[in-house]
Amino acid sequence: MNKSFIFSTLTLAAFTAAIFFYFWAREPAMDPSTMEARARVMAVDDSEVHTSCLSHIGFQTLGIEILNTRFKGVKTQATNSLNGQIDLENLYHVDDTIIAAIIMDTNGKIEHVKAIDLYRQDSLLYMFIVFAIALLAYAGAIGVKALLSFVLSIFIIWEILVKQILAGHPPLITTTFTLILLSGIIIFMVAGFNRKGITAFLGTIAGLAVTLGATLVFGNGAGLLGMTQPYVNALIFSGYYNLDIQQIFYSAIVLGASGAAMDIAMDIAASMDEIRIKKPDIRAKELIKSGFTVGRQVIGTMTTTLLLAYSGGYLTLLMIFRVKDPSFMRMINLKIVSAEIMRTLIGSIGLVMVAPITAILGGIIIAGITTHAHK
After folding, report:
1. What pLDDT, in 10s, does the model give residues 295-307?
2. Are 294 and 232 in contact (CB under 8 A)?
3. Across-strand partners of 104?
4. How many other CB atoms are found less than 10 A from the CB of residue 270?
């Protein structure tokens, strides 16, 4: 077995274990009188549930069996309150596995049990395992590095980006520095610290700078304050009144476009590096031309990829437009539509610019203009 694969796998395992232990050690302490557990629904009483179309109001009484914790095997009743919020609430059925909040009395016995949500953790884990196996089977050692960068990216976004913004640090500046850190980790971990990696990294940073500049230039003119973002009201009413929601919206635009910019920069840098390996005597000007050709092909599909990605998140909104048939003027100026158009177009501006910049940088770094200039 390849030594690089073994080393990368051991590193991935060590980092994953360290991050898991970090989150486990920092798990917020719950009220000692409350405990969360998995439970299986054994019986359902819907007599107090009032249904209108897909919305449910009232409460369910559930007969459940607790599946873990010190109450494993205990059969008891749980309540499920319903307020008509179909995006947040569940109507449970027999054999569902749920998360239950167990409220105990002073003697440590069960006093009341409340249904929290469906238990989806196993399904999500199976998805991740299939993803990891497919990635490792195809990419080998590079796939291990990609998984490691994936895990580290989650950790950095959660522990640095989100935490620092909530602490009151400027969202746009914090996001920019976080993305620079993430780009360096992901690119150099996958490509290595070499000419290809440096080219892809600098191309990504250039695309990030263009996206950031376009966001600042066009943002104010669009008159969007960021209130269309999911859960923004819940965040404000949780006590974070001083957050700059508009800057958080701008940060989300830059963050959303950064992954695609990194992808394009790496595609072009890897292609140019492969060309140089096959033709070591290639001149920088010729290599830049090849980089431009590759960039045009990638950009041709990547811009549409952004459109499809954002449209997928608002498919039901597009369906409402088909049903209501509003005028084009009204539809295009609707706040939530304008916000998504801004995301798509500004992200696309960054993508269009990252391709030629990376190609030029590749000519300088990979081929070495100075080397050929003296020949």
Report:
1. 888 887 777 777 7
2. no
3. 110
4. 18
